[in-house]
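Lab notes, practical 5.
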Amino acid sequence: AALGEKVAVPTPSGTVEVSVPAGSQSGRKLRLKGRGIPGNPPGDLYLILDVVLPPANDDKARALYQAMARDLAFNPRSA
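Output from the prediction step:
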């Protein structure tokens, strides 16, 4: 989510590839125009992002998180 990505998403009319914009956060809504309930015209489908962080369950992962905390000027309480 921080870097952006393309993901496959199932829709009523089949799977589509969606571009998730860089910097996306959990709860962000993306609209897929015309990909919702079939009809004339077809409805829109809304995706709500659920960003999940990689676990810090080994030394390498913890070191990467510690390096990010040290090197990036980010305070989640002020966001």
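Observations recorded by the TA: The longest helix spans residues 59-71. The longest strand covers residues 5-11.
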